[in-house]
Write a structure and sequence with these properties.
Structural class of chain A: mainly alpha
Distance between the termini of chain A: 29 Å
Radius of gyration of chain A: 24 Å
Strand order of the largest sheet of chain A: 1-2
Number of helices of chain A: 23
Order of helices and strands of chain B: HEEHEEHEHHEEHHHHEHEEEEHH
CATH class of chain B: Alpha Beta
CATH architecture of chain B: 3-Layer(aba) Sandwich
Shape of chain B: globular
Number of strands of chain B: 12
Structural class of chain B: alpha/beta
Strand content of chain A: under 5%
Radius of gyration of chain B: 21 Å
Largest interface: A-B, 57 and 62 residues
Distance between the termini of chain B: 22 Å
Oligomer: heterodimer
Order of helices and strands of chain A: HHHHHHHHHHEEEEHHHHHEHHHHEHHHH
């Protein structure tokens, strides 16, 4: 027979696991053992909250942004580039703040998943803004709707060259990726299907006001043979045909499983999810409910086995110790240095994730970041992505200023009140804090390293330095 | 007679680039250790190859580039049709010494003109329709480490790793300079964690072990490299810019006897949409003076025959200049090889054909993966088939 306190521990561990995966970690002081898990799950998935649209650019600015930058006088072009970059940085910051502060955290977490799934990059902040709105608004909605809206967004149409997909010169890029990466995955279509689907997607375009437009003149309305069916298909027909395939539900369920449960896939569990998803007509809430209310989700092999993505890590910090960068640029610099920048995925396949997040330099970076932020230390580090971007600008000074700024002075503001209130420095704070914020108990060795790093034992500073050190442990990289 | 003159006619040039079939290496057991060193120099941003190795007797070149072409009388002639950019005087000297080989028109089918994507393709050695999340050198690291562990087999001279240096089961090591990395792993907190773990390791999850293995390998590698690097300090004065510092670091590590086989370094700034002339001059000066000093160092310390360096860029640029005295993203490009162990020297194949373009872009004639396969097999003595997931024909330059 289990003692009450062990049941309580087990309950707390389950809650921690749930919040780690469905959100960005357990918010301090919010979990009471009076709630039942099923109520918490229901609340996470079905919480009604007002949707906040993130806005950084207006429609009037679209045309300006779409202007041919190369034909401008140098100074004008330079100013425009800076304006564009500033908007993107601002959008990144607003989105990250939503992940931290939104009352509907699961929606933001799911939007992050969709960002990796429908990975897309644009040089136009208005397109970015539309794109972010689509994946956030539909994050917990219907996958079919999401797929259709993304397929018609200027951001994706441009990224995958569908503006150039015309009757006379079909461009297969979108048709290929929509099958390979967005819906059914490799092995479930032929090269011929792609060729024919590309013809069906001709005419999918956007106009000057950044709205989807079906250009009839550019559309090839001839007969196509796709997945063994013959007809005068257009892009909408192809998307419907993809959704009709069970392989689509299975492909998405597998990816969602990897994101929320375990990098190593359990085929039985995925099959179960895939059926729920397909039979519900691609209801994302039902899919997530099936995951979080399953028994296997809480199995020990699924706990603490995932490496946090940089965004999960960064948002997770602020759930424990709320802090802000005094300047948005620092935020982008840190994301770049950690290897995951919102709105800037490596390619249409998204971030590979898992062990790929960690190598010698990214691990060392993660292990010194909490201190660097707290003590506002200079971070002598040049992120790779930045080098790539520096030379895409004709004038290095734009991106350089972001790096130099960040390297010289990362300014932060920490709000310690919650954590200082929650813990009592007269007890074993190292143990208490690590029990709260780590998913599984660290080794004695790690605990003693943390203890040695605590410089002062005045109550407040002991709590602070214990928290900073625990957040620097390799164990903290897992969730 | 100059060494390069053994290849002349176009038909022959293409033929001699590849090994005759009967000479291809058989599937002999490959030794996993080699004293050969490879230095990969990425010219990031897409270097304009046509203004690097200039077809200075071709009217089409001058016609396509009324503003930014290199005047005939400034070119450093390599042969009757091709010549180096005037800032590459030191590379010209190396060329005359027989330490340079040049392969023109290197690329891949269905070229992509996005920096990111094309760099992915070159670094992962994928086809242009595949997405591979590991790099060709990272997979070399995986494979060689499966025979005998060496955490310092592959070093990238930077703060972080590029895709090229990331493997599936292991990674190269990123460091800007040995001292900096050593200092980073020598804090009491990190030292303690690295030490304690090995004594008390007991974790359920694979990923906990992975993190600690990475940490402890990083600490020991950083120490090994820093300690060993003290053996040799170069007496030569390398130019005072980042690329110069990086190549000096590499030279000192090689001469000190560090067990690294592959070094990866990036020189950025080649995306010359406008103002190309000035920027290329500056970059070629950096490249040329640094490589020259590096080679001098290798020669003076008896390493020159064990060293092979090559340059690559994610793409070349369009033949036609643009309206801003620059060039836009293009396709095929040349690769330079430097070293004392080259089996073929000089210009190894025909220069670009400016009268046979694909939508205004150069057509590739050599797939870059053939070059990778050749280097892996014939220079690093590694199984290129396993690393590249395909078998490509070998060339004869090493």
């Amino acid at each position: 027979m289990k003692s009450v306190s062990r049941i309580d521990m087990e309950f707390q561990d389950k809650i921690k696991h749930l919040y780690n995966r469905a959100c960005f970690g357990v918010p301090l002081n919010t979990v009471s053992s009076k709630q039942e898990i099923k109520d918490i799950i229901h609340h996470l998935i079905y919480a009604k909250s007002t949707h906040t649209t993130l806005q950084v650019a207006s429609l009037e600015e679209v045309e300006k942004l779409q202007a041919d930058i190369k034909s401008m006088p140098k100074e004008t072009a330079k100013e425009l580039r800076k304006a564009i970059r500033d908007r993107q940085v601002q959008l990144n910051q607003l989105w990250l703040e939503q992940m931290v502060n939104s009352s509907n955290t699961l929606q933001e977490k799911m939007a992050l998943f969709w960002h990796g799934h429908f990975a897309c990059r644009s040089s136009n902040p208005f397109f970015d803004q539309q794109y972010v709105e689509i994946i956030r608004k539909n994050a917990l909605g219907n996958f079919g709707t999401l797929l259709k809206e993304i397929s018609k967004s200027p951001s994706m149409l441009q990224f995958l060259n569908n503006q150039q997909n015309k009757k006379e010169h079909p461009n297969e890029n979108f048709a290929r990726e929509v099958m390979e990466l967005f819906t059914i995955g490799r092995g479930n279509y032929t090269e011929h299907d792609i060729k024919e689907a590309a013809r069906a997607f001709t005419g999918f375009a956007f106009d000057k006001s950044a709205q989807f437009i079906f250009r009839k003149k550019q559309h090839d309305d001839g007969v196509k043979l796709i997945f063994g069916k013959t007809g005068n298909f257009d892009g909408d027909d192809v998307l419907e045909m993809l959704l009709e395939k069970k392989e689509c539900a299975h492909f998405i369920a597998t990816k969602v499983y990897r994101f929320f449960v375990n990098d190593v896939v359990n085929e039985n569990n995925v099959q179960q999810l895939s059926d729920v998803f397909y039979n519900s007509g691609y209801d994302i809430q039902k899919l997530l409910h099936a995951i979080f209310s399953s028994n296997w989700f809480y199995n020990i092999e699924n706990r603490g086995c995932k490496i946090k993505s940089p965004i999960e890590l960064l948002v997770g910090y602020t759930r424990i110790i709320p802090f802000q960068f005094t300047d948005n640029k620092s935020n982008v610099f840190i994301q770049k240095s950690l290897g995951q920048e919102l709105l800037n995925p490596p390619n249409v396949a998204g971030w590979p994730g898992g062990k790929n997040w960690i190598d010698s330099s990214s691990l060392l970076f993660r292990m010194r970041l909490p201190q660097a932020l707290y003590f506002e230390q200079a971070i002598n580090f040049t992120p790779k992505a930045t080098i790539a971007e520096v030379y895409s600008y004709t004038n290095n000074t734009i991106m350089d200023s972001y790096i130099k700024f960040a390297v010289k002075k990362i300014k932060t503001q920490f709000d310690w009140s919650a954590i200082v209130q929650q813990f009592n420095a007269s007890s074993d704070v190292v143990k208490d804090i690590s029990n709260t914020i780590l998913i599984s108990p660290p080794s004695q060795a790690s605990l003693s390293a943390v203890r040695k790093s605590i410089e002062s034992y005045t109550s407040e500073s002991a709590i602070k330095s214990a928290a900073i050190s625990i957040m620097s442990l390799p164990e903290y990289q897992l969730c | 007679m100059k060494r390069r003159t053994f290849i002349k006619t176009s038909a022959l040039a293409t033929a001699t680039l590849y090994l005759p079939n009967f000479l291809k290496a058989s599937e002999e057991v490959l030794k996993t250790t080699t004293n050969k060193k490879l230095i990969v120099i990425q010219l990031a941003g897409g270097n304009d190859g046509l203004n690097t190795v200039v077809p200075y007797n071709n009217d089409l070149y001058y016609k396509a580039r009324p503003q930014i072409s290199i005047p005939k009388n400034e070119v450093l002639p390599l042969d009757a049709s091709l010549g180096l950019h005037p800032m590459m005087t030191e590379i010209m000297d190396l060329y005359n010494d027989g330490s340079v080989a040049l392969i023109n028109n290197v690329g891949y089918p269905e070229p992509d003109r996005s920096h990111f994507r094309s760099m992915d393709i070159w670094q992962s050695a994928s086809g242009s329709r595949e997405y591979i999340a590991s790099g060709w050198l990272g997979r070399f690291h995986d494979l060689q480490n499966s025979f005998s562990a060496n955490d310092t087999l592959l070093l990238e001279i930077d703060d972080s790793l590029s895709l090229a240096s990331k493997g599936n089961s292991s990674n190269g090591l990123a460091l800007k300079d040995p001292k900096k990395l050593f200092n980073e792993v020598s804090t009491p907190f990190i030292t303690q964690l690295g030490k304690n773990y090995t004594a008390t390791a007991d974790h359920n999850h694979d990923n906990v072990s992975y993190l600690y293995q990475t940490l402890s390998a990083t600490i020991s590698s950083a120490k090994y490299i820093y300690q060993t690097s003290k053996i040799f300090h170069s007496a030569l004065s390398y130019p005072d810019h980042e690329f110069g510092h990086s190549m000096k670091t590499i030279a000192e590590l090689i001469i000190s006897g560090v067990n690294t086989s592959v070094y990866y370094v990036t020189l950025g700034g080649f995306d010359t949409h406008f103002n190309q002339k000035k920027r290329q001059e500056n970059l070629f000066k950096q490249l040329s003076e640094t490589i020259s000093i590096f080679m001098k160092d290798m020669k003076a310390n008896g390493k020159i025959d064990d060293v092979l360096a090559f340059t690559f860029s994610e793409f070349g640029r369009r033949v036609q200049e643009n309206a801003s005295e620059g060039t836009d993203h293009g396709t095929a490009n040349q690769i330079f090889f430097f070293g004392g162990g080259l089996k073929q020297k000089g210009i190894l194949n025909d220069g670009p054909n400016l009268s046979d373009l694909d939508n205004g872009d150069l057509k590739y004639t050599v797939d870059f993966r053939h070059i990778y396969a050749t280097i892996l097999r014939k220079w690093l003595n590694a199984n290129d088939n396993l690393i590249l997931g395909n078998s490509f024909p070998y060339l004869s330059f090493v």
